[in-house]
Design a protein that fits this description.
It is a single chain. The chain has 517 residues and is of the alpha/beta class. The protein has 18 helices and eleven strands. Helix 1 packs antiparallel against helix 4. The chain is globular and about 80 Å long.
Length: 517
């Protein structure tokens, strides 16, 4: 923030310029072309300089607010003034998700072609409610959904659509599961009329959006049963069967099991074959949350994990993750399209389609919770058509290789240790200085627990110091009660050298953290 005064002065000069007219609701062709050139110039400079940037800014909410004009605008500004705010405030005070060492969370960098696709989609402003509303755009979405089914080897007659993200995809899938397995018309009568509590089964590592969906759908969070995981953090099917059997005996209604194709904490990949077997045994709806890991199916080294995904009744995916697209773009697939349609179709005079053939009477509102829907499919189509599956496969494979490289480096080190195996591209580890290792080796159980608590605190402080340092960015996880440094490789810019720099950054800031204890 050392240059704040200079930037504020520069912004003030720009914002008081009177030689350029304010933005019009209906600008001239020349004005739009000038704005477009300026915006693209900003984008290219920003992307070219990503690697040299701090991943995370050193700032506060108050400092950002002070840099923005909070007054309700009565008169308009010109585009150059707005772009100046973008350059001088929004850009430097953002977290840069496209940075090759942005390892926090499950975060895609986006791509220039997809950003341009979003611009084009917004200019067209198609509303993909039904075919009659956006004929070409609807066909693009239907086509790209077919391509995604091919990537997963999912049934060709399955239904699907794009939604805001994995949370909404999980919500839609659980809604379809509830209607399909309820003993009465739950859409008409409501969940409070159910004679039994409907139970859904998830592993302890399943994303919280499932419990949130259960709460919103009237199933209830307490009816989401958490199943134990094994040493690789995958769902324990013995415990799954035991909990289903117990609930059925106690008068509850088991109706759905969720398998993870890559958990958000560790990247653990449940055995789809084993979960499918249990689902068939107890007549459960099988949902696969593949929001993180689904497009790892593009990589040859991970393809075998998806062999039984075609057994799933529904699948949640996030193209805005491993298809390297900007948010928002989630996806839900339903193996039985009529089960989905029976859940979401609703008759109203203003949605009645008149005078068209069956194919043109298609409506996305019959398969998901939204009515208004933006043209998300254009960036999916442009990415797959423009870049090609081959290049995407190589990029995903590179991400997996980078995570495995980090795991090898940690296992070969004397000051770090892995806390979970690398399944896809998520890695969980911690910093363990030599003195702590010696205490762990010599001490009894009580001593080891005390050392582990000290390591939890040390690694938590180390994480904060790393984020403030700005060269690399990690997030955190709790695994077996222990604090873990957690990262996810999901960036076509990331190289094995970046994984080495990450450990170098941690080693560089660690003495400062330890000195401050």
């Amino acid at each position: 923030m050392a240059n704040t005064k200079h930037l504020n002065a520069k912004m003030t000069d720009t914002l008081h310029s009177d030689d350029i007219p304010p933005i019009s609701l209906d600008p001239t062709t020349e004005q739009v072309e000038r704005w477009g050139r300026a915006a693209i110039a900003w984008m290219t400079h920003y992307l070219d300089s990503l690697r040299e940037r701090r991943v995370y800014p050193v700032t506060t909410a108050r400092q950002i607010r002070e840099r923005l004009d909070a007054g309700l605008p009565e008169a308009g500004a010109n585009f150059e003034q707005l772009l100046e705010v973008m350059r001088e405030v929004i850009e430097p005070l953002s977290r840069h998700n496209g940075h090759p060492r942005m390892f926090g969370y499950v975060q895609s960098p986006g791509t220039p072609i997809a950003a341009i696709a979003d611009l084009l989609a917004s200019a067209l402003n198609a509303n993909l409610t039904a075919w009659r509303s956006a004929p070409a755009a609807v066909e693009i979405e239907r086509l790209t959904i077919d391509w995604i089914k091919q990537i997963l080897s999912y049934p060709t007659d399955a239904a699907g659509l794009f939604v805001s993200g994995g949370s909404m995809a999980n919500f839609a899938a659980l809604a379809a599961a509830r209607r399909a397995k309820a003993p009465l018309n739950v859409l008409r009568d409501g969940a409070h009329h159910l004679p039994q509590a409907m139970r859904v089964y998830v592993s302890e590592e399943t994303h919280h959006s499932i419990a949130k969906a259960a709460a919103l759908l009237g199933i209830g969070r307490n009816n989401v049963r958490a199943v134990a995981v094994d040493e690789r953090f995958r769902i324990n099917t013995d415990d799954l069967v035991a909990k289903i059997t117990e609930d059925a005996r106690d008068g509850h209604l088991p109706f759905c099991v969720v398998a993870n194709a890559g958990t958000v904490a560790t990247g653990a990949f449940d055995s789809l074959a084993d979960v499918s077997c249990v689902a068939r045994q107890f007549n459960l709806w099988m949902h696969v949350d593949a929001s993180y890991g689904g497009f790892a199916a593009l990589a040859a080294s991970a393809r075998h994990r998806f062999a039984e995904i075609n057994e799933a009744d529904s699948v949640a995916l996030d193209p805005h993750k491993w298809l390297y697209l900007p948010v928002d773009c989630g996806c839900v697939l339903y193996r039985d399209r009529e089960a989905a349609r029976a859940t979401f179709a609703h008759d109203a005079e203003y949605t009645r389609v008149i005078g068209v053939e069956a194919d043109e009477a298609f409506a996305f509102w019959d398969y998901g919770p939204e009515l208004s829907r933006r043209f998300r499919a254009l960036k999916v189509w442009m990415m797959l058509k423009g870049v090609g599956v081959g290049a995407l496969s190589e990029a995903v494979e590179n991400d997996l290789a980078c995570a495995r490289h980090l795991e090898r480096l940690v296992r070969a080190s004397e000051d770090f240790e892995m806390l979970a195996p690398v399944e896809l591209s998520i890695f969980c580890f911690r910093y363990v200085p030599a003195r702590f290792k010696q205490e762990m080796e010599r001490g009894d159980e009580q001593t080891r627990e005390h050392v582990n608590q000290q390591l939890d605190g040390l690694n938590e402080r180390l994480l904060v110091a790393l984020q403030r340092d700005g060269s690399s960015y990690l997030s955190n996880a709790q695994l077996g009660g222990r604090f873990a440094l957690r990262g996810c490789v999901m960036n076509y810019r990331t190289t094995p050298r970046d994984m080495e720099i990450l450990l170098e950054d941690l080693r560089r800031v660690a003495p400062q953290v330890e000195a401050g204890e």
